[in-house]
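Dear colleague,

Following up on yesterday's call, I've attached the two folding results inline so they're easy to grep. Please treat them as preliminary; we haven't cross-checked anything against experimental data yet. The first protein's sequence and structure tokens come first.
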Amino acid sequence: MTSFRAFVFPALAVVIHASATVAAEPTFPKETHGDWHVLLGVPASNLGITDEDTGLIGGKVKIDADRLTLASPGEQPETLLTANCKLLAEQRVDEKNRPLPGKEAEARLSGRVTGDRRLLWATSEAGLLHVKILTSDPPKTTGPFKGFYLSNQFGGGPETLYLVLRRQAVPARSKHEKAADAKRILGDWKAVAHYDDAFLKGPGLAGKRTFSITAERINELDAKGQFVRPPVGFWGTYQIAEPVGALGAIDLQLESWAGGGAGLMGRTPSLLAFYGDDLLYIAYNETDRRTEDKRTRCERLRSDGNHNLFILVRQPTEGKK
């Protein structure tokens, strides 16, 4: 997906040797085998899907010891991609030889993308499986990392397919209506994934941010359930707006500081999408420096150099099963 741009951070480089050694153990351990469902799959356009932001959400993935198979969402799923893998023996490290999360495998791809590529995978504290598959050769690098590919971080890019998977099925996207969205958004939510500059925040793949959304405010909570006010955060007042096409709309009035030295965020017209009542996506612009009256709503449910994306799962309230 072109919107999930390829940002290169040399401190997070992955070292890949020309003559990689294949490990004896399987690519995927037994506890990862079976069916998974797609929370995020970008860019879907790398598989010929027009809706590159959300076209794979709800798709199904089957994992065996050395194989991953991806099928499209819908009542008549189509097998889009198969990756037959061989786990590499080398541990994933950065340029300072520090271990990086996840494992890496050689992957022979068939389906809508073919060829011999690389596949990275890791599990998160939220119980999600993150998979990144090279779908084309990455750009050649220069300087001290010449010969390495730097697409290490878990996120999308023009030469990759990035999948976020969970065990539970993903409901179809809800039909958005202002009054219904205003009721659905209330409650406690946990960010199982948060993307900044198209990449997952937190190299440990941790999901530690929780939020309480009332009729007027989004409040971030600490581990004890108390309100916190981080200087760079996602909290403030809001109003649900009229839907924009198939997506819902939310006008945030964020009281935290924006990235890129943009100052206090203030009015931030944003997008949201519900998949059922308990799964929520919110995308917002974190770097709009124009005066608040000139700010326009982001156009896509995505993360890129200017937009953040949260994937939130509703948390049960006390006394509710």
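Below is the second protein, in the same order (sequence, then structure):
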Amino acid sequence: MKKLMIFPYNNDVEAALQWVDIVEKYQLVYIGLKKEQDSLHNVEITNCELGIDVKKGCEMADIILLVDDPQCRDYTVYQEIAMAAKGKEVILDKSLYTKIGKGYFKGCITNFNFENEFIDYFHKNFLYEINAPVITIMGMGENCDKLSSIFSVTSLLKKKGFKVLGICSNALGILFDLKVIPGCMYNKELTFTEKIIWWNHVVYRLTEEEKPDIVVMEIPGGILPINKFENNFFGELASVMNYAIVPDICIVNLYYPVSLTDEQAEKISLFCDYKFNAKVNAYFISKQQYRTDSEQEKIIYLNLSEKEYIENFPADLENYKTVNILARGELEEMVDECITILSDNIDAI
């Protein structure tokens, strides 16, 4: 088991830690904190240290996993880690590698999360049938706990004995043996149609090679614009990935609502059905809220505490299932429902 360091600590890392007990390939030994996070050093994680001494973390670890931080404007600490990691494997997304600067990684063994693995998966101009049932996890936008959801769903399915092919958009997926969506998906030179065919071929090849019982796929970005400051690329990736592979089960993550009605849930469900051919089976309620900063013309995300999340959780809906993502019992119940749905659907199996 290889020793792993992660930098930085953020909401996605926090989500991953909820399921770290089932990680098999890595021993998490150090989580690097940003200087303004120093107060978190007393967070207790079994056999793992948290701290701002990233050089110490590099010395302790065999592998360093760098996670992009959308709010980051200064990559100095990332650069310090890259220089301290000479001779070691550094796993990161290629976009983050570019932001940090290629020159800082001299002497490192860089791993770009399957970046080059799927480039040639584009041979025929038609869509293959995927020989496994597919669960997709979509969201209203960025930062709505989709990563936490795929960790939960894949982990629980594996615990129940299913062989799962999980696909996510974050480098943290390697902890749970998930494939990470390669950069080709964001390639502006590929047309909309080419991306659909290419992604279908990628997933088809993976299912033929790995023979999973179930495919669970997180879809990056959002399904529609939030407002004029955040267009979520007008749901392009949701369209591409759902057109490429029609899901058997669809989960949608919602930002934490002030209120949620059956009418609102119905409108979202109809939208997903008509636009993506994805019938919504459940809504997962995120810990994240968003606010609009009109002066700076951007969206600000707020991460609720566990107390705030539970105290103000929306009332149950009459016609749609809402899931508390912090309640493992509710997550297990939802996964059991997914298994029942797929068992009753001969076409999916």
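For the second protein, one point worth flagging: DSSP finds ten helices and 15 strands in the chain.

Best wishes,
A.L.
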